[in-house]
UniProtKB/TrEMBL annotation:
This is DUF3138 domain-containing protein. Keywords: Signal. Residues 68-85 have a biased composition (Low complexity). Residues 56-88 are annotated as: Disordered. It comes from the Bacteria. Residues 1-26 form the signal peptide. It comes from Komagataeibacter melomenusus.
Amino acid sequence: MGRPRMVLGGLMVMLGGMVAPAAAQADDMAEIRAIHAEMQRLASRVQQLEARHGMTEGTHVLAGRTLRSGPRSSASSTSVTNPSGQITAMPDLSRLTIGGPALSDDAQAAAAAENTMTESIVPSQPKLDLDSSSPLAITQTGVDSLPPIFRIGGVSVRLGGFIDFSNIYRSKNLTSGPATSWGAFPYANSPNAHTGEYRPSAQLTRLSVLLQGSPTKDETLSGYIETDFGGAAGTANSYQTNSYTPRIRQAYMTYSNTKWGFHVLAGQAWSLTTGYTQGLLSRHEQLPPVVDNNQIPGIVFTRVPQIRFIKDFGRKWWLGLSLEAPQVAYAASGSAGDHPMMTGTDDDTLASSGTTLLYNNAGSGMLNPNAKYSMDVAPDIVLKGALDTKPAHYEVYGLARWFKAMGQAPGGPIREHVSFAGGVGGDVTVHVIPRYLQFTGNVLAGEGIGRYGPAMLPDATFKANGSPAPIPEIIGSMGLIGHPTSNLLIYLYGGVESAGRRTYTGSDGFEYGYGVNDLALSSCNVELITGGSCDAQTHTIADLTVGGWWHVLQGGYGAVMTGVQYTYLRKFAYKGGDGATPTTGGNTIYVTFRYLPFQ
C-alpha cells in the first residue's frame, strides 16, 4: 500500500504546484484532466489489488460500513488532507460498499453502457431531462440516469420513482381508477352515461430498484423491479383507508455482453411490440408522456412475462426475438333477449349448432379466482428489427399467436381446435427539430391482436364447430412531442383501434360471431335509470389527447412536476338489423402532481 500512496501523493503534489500563465491555461487544463484520469486509473487498480489479497488498508469506515475511495466527478467529491498528511477523498455515499469490493471503472462503464449507451457513469444529481420523446422521468422511473445509492459487494443499487397525486374527472361514470377503461364508455341506455365522476388517487405512485453488476468489463448482469399501487384486493375500497395494494409492473433480469452485442431479458417487462426510442433494450420504450395508466387508444403494448433475445450490430442495427405470455379475449354476439350466440346454460353452448365449448377457466393457485384465463397452447412470438439513425429510429416486426378451444358436438367426441393469429407492425420516432420537436407513430394490423391495444377490443369469436375465429383488427397512433423550454413539455396524440367482422350464418338464419348486422340495437339509445339491454359490438374507438408537463422545482431535495392531460374519445358500434348505429363518447381530464425524490 505504501507505493501506490506515494504515487498518488506525488501526483497530487504535482497538481498543486502547477501554476501556469494565462497564455498557457488551456494546455494546463488539458494536463490536469489527464492527471485526474491517471489518478482514477491508479486508484481503481489499487482497489482491485486490495480486493484480490483481502487487504483493508486504504479503506475508510463510515457508520460501521466500508467506504472505498475511488474516481468521482467534480460535482460529487472533494479532496481533503487526513491527520497523517495523506490526501484522500471525502466520503461519497454512491461508493458505500457492504460486504465486498466496489466495482472497477471498467465495470461501472459497462453497467452504464448497457442502458444509457454512453461510455461513462452519469454524474450524480443529474438535471431532469424533458427533451426526449419519451422522458424517463415521466414515462419510466428515470432510474438509469441516477447514481448508485450504495453497493452490496460488486452490485450497485439505484433507486427511482415518484410520489403521484392525480385528480381525475370523466364526463361519464366508468367507476374506473387512474387506468381508464377506454372500451367501457357507456351508451345512452345506461344511467352512467348521464353523469360524470371525479376520482383523486395516489395509486400511480411508483417505486423501482435497479441492481447491476459486471463479471467482466464486457458483461453486465442487471435486475430491475418496478411497482405501483394499482392492485385492488378484496378488501380495497375508497371509503376510509382505501387499502389499494402494491403490484408488479416490471420484474426482470438481464444479461448484456457489449463485446458480442448480445442481450437477454427474462421476467415481466413491456412487450417487444412496444415501440422504442432507440435500440431495443429495456427502459427505452417509446411510451407517450400521458398520465393515464392505461395509456391512450392506439398505442401498442402489453406488460407480461417473457424471455427475450436481442442482437445489436454496432448499436445501429438491432434484431430481437421475444416469447411472451399469451391470453385471449373472446367475444360472442347477442344476449338472452336477442338470439344469443351462446345458449346461456351452465356450459357455453353454440346456439347455432349445439356444440359445447370450453375455452377458459377460473384461476386457482396463485391466479385470481375471479378472473377467467384462456386455454393457451404456445407463447406469443414477436420478431422485430430496428434501425437507429441520427434523425430517426425505425422498427418493423411480426407477431404470431395461437388460440385454443375445446368443442364437443352433440353425441360426438371432444375435439381440440387451434387457430393461428397474428399481424405485422411498425414504429417510428423522428427528431423533426432536435431537442425541440419529435414525431412518433406506430401501427399494428392483423387478426387476433386486440389485447395489444388499450381499448381491449376482443381477440376472437367462434365458428360453428367451436373453432376460435380471430377477429381482423388495426391499432395505430401518431403523436407530436414539443419542448418549448427546458422545463416544459407538451404533447398531442391521435389514436384509433378498429375491429373487423368475423361472422357466420347459422341453420336458424341468424348471424353469429362479431360484427353481426341483425341485432336489435335501438334500445342502446333508450334512457332508463335501471339500465336497458344493449348488445352493440364495438367497431372503432378513436381518441384525441393533448397535455403537458411543467418542471416546477429542481435541487438537492429532488424535483417537483405538475401535469395536465385531456382526452376526447368516441366509440362507434356496428349497425344493427333495426338500422340503429349506437355511438358514444366522453372527456377525461387529469391534473397531476409528482415529487421525484431521487432526481
